[in-house]
């Protein structure tokens, strides 16, 4: 009789554990399939300072840049800890490119070229405006170099004017009035 009761209790415990496990899987929607992590960009945080990507997303003047960053699959990379300095061209800067250029770059087959151009707008370092000086060479993520010019209190990177600066949780966004193109390799 004792053996029978112990067997029933043991079986009941196993069934209860299996039922709890099944309920947890069903409620979380993760039954037995693995989910691909979305990366840092998927973290929802409405209280902390915005990262460089969220700064761009929140700007009505950077919708083209946001589309380009998404098309080049750079959202998660730029949402990481950094520090990054992003030289962010405005919509008007993209519109000043030859007709059809942006549409062509946004095509999936041009993803690498688009990524190269966008990475030329990013440095892995924090460069506040006050730390930039005339003639300074900055290494960009794509392996190219860009030159800072300071004249009469106006700052440029290559031939683009820095027209505003926004601090982000993982770096700095310098708004620029022109798309800067990497030197040909």
Automatic annotation (TrEMBL):
PROSITE patterns: FAS1, PROKAR_LIPOPROTEIN. InterPro entries: Adhesion/Biosynth-related, FAS1_dom_sf, FAS1_domain. One of its GO terms (cellular component) is extracellular space. Pfam families: Fasciclin (PF02469). Residues 24-47 are annotated as: Disordered. It comes from the Bacteria. Residues 49-180 form the FAS1 domain. SMART domains: FAS1. Signal peptide: none annotated. Residues 24-39 have a biased composition (Polar residues). PANTHER family: FI19380P1 (PTHR10900:SF77), PERIOSTIN-RELATED (PTHR10900). This is Fasciclin domain-containing protein. The lineage of its organism: Bacteria, Pseudomonadati, Bacteroidota, Cytophagia, Cytophagales.
């Amino acid at each position: 009789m004792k053996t029978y009761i112990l067997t029933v209790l043991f079986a009941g415990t196993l069934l209860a554990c299996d039922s709890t496990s099944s309920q947890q899987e069903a409620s979380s929607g993760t039954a037995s399939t693995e989910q691909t992590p979305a990366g840092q960009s998927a973290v929802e945080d409405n209280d902390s300072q915005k990262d460089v990507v969220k700064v761009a997303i929140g700007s009505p003047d950077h919708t083209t840049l946001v589309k380009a960053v998404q098309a080049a699959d750079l959202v998660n990379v730029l949402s990481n800890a950094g520090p990054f300095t992003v030289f962010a061209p405005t919509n008007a800067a993209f519109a000043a490119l030859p007709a059809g250029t942006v549409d062509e770059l946004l095509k999936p087959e041009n993803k690498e070229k688009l990524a190269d151009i966008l990475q030329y707008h990013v440095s892995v370092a924090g460069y506040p405006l006050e730390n930039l000086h005339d003639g300074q060479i900055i290494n960009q993520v794509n392996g190219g170099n860009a030159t800072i010019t300071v004249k009469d209190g106006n700052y440029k990177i290559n031939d683009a004017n820095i027209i505003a600066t926004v601090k982000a949780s993982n770096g700095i966004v310098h708004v620029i009035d022109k798309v800067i193109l990497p030197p040909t390799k």
